[in-house]
């Protein structure tokens, strides 16, 4: 159970690891069903969700289920971290590129820039972008082109 952002969320997970010969999916060791019940802080029902997944994690014991719940919950940390950076550092939401493959290409280029900076150890992407922007050779060095 989690409480925050004006709501309470209860998550229940069921895990199965007897997939041998049943599921033709590379490296699949475990399937799960995650059920979420969300209410506001007063207990008024907001929504119920069911999510199914397949993972390479093994085990159906309580420890594995808790670890899997933590990983599923942590997925949004990754999503929010990337999309927030793309919007704040590149002002992506106001982009005027809307035709053909342009938006996808630009999103990919932004992801490459963010990934290269993170691999290089940048903690603050905006600061690292300014640092690279002051000298073209720095950015090229990060990409292995100089």
Characterise this structure.
This protein is of the alpha+beta class and 146 residues long. It folds into 2 domains: 1-75, no CATH class; 95-146, no CATH class. Helices cover 43% and strands 24% of the residues. The protein contains 4 helices and 4 strands; from the N terminus they run E-E-E-E-H-H-H-H. The chain has a 4-stranded antiparallel beta sheet with strand order 1-2-3-4, with no helix packed on it. A hairpin with a 2-residue loop joins strand 1 and strand 2. Helix 1 (62-90) crosses helix 2 (102-119). The radius of gyration is 21 Å and the shape is extended. The N and C termini lie far apart (51 Å). The mean pLDDT is 86.
């Amino acid at each position: 159970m989690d409480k925050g952002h004006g709501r309470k969320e209860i998550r229940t997970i069921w895990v199965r690891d007897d997939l041998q010969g049943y599921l033709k999916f590379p490296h699949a060791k475990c399937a799960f069903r995650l059920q979420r019940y969300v209410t506001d802080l007063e207990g008024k029902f907001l929504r119920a969700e069911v999510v199914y997944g397949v993972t390479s994690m093994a085990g159906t014991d309580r420890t594995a289920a808790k670890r899997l719940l933590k990983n599923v919950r942590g997925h949004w940390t990754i999503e929010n971290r990337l999309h927030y950076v793309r919007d704040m550092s590149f002002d992506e939401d106001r982009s005027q590129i809307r035709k053909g493959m342009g938006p996808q290409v630009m999103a990919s280029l932004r992801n490459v820039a963010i990934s290269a900076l993170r691999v290089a150890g940048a903690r603050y992407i905006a600061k690292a972008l300014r640092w690279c922007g002051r000298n073209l050779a720095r950015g090229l060095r990060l990409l292995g082109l100089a």
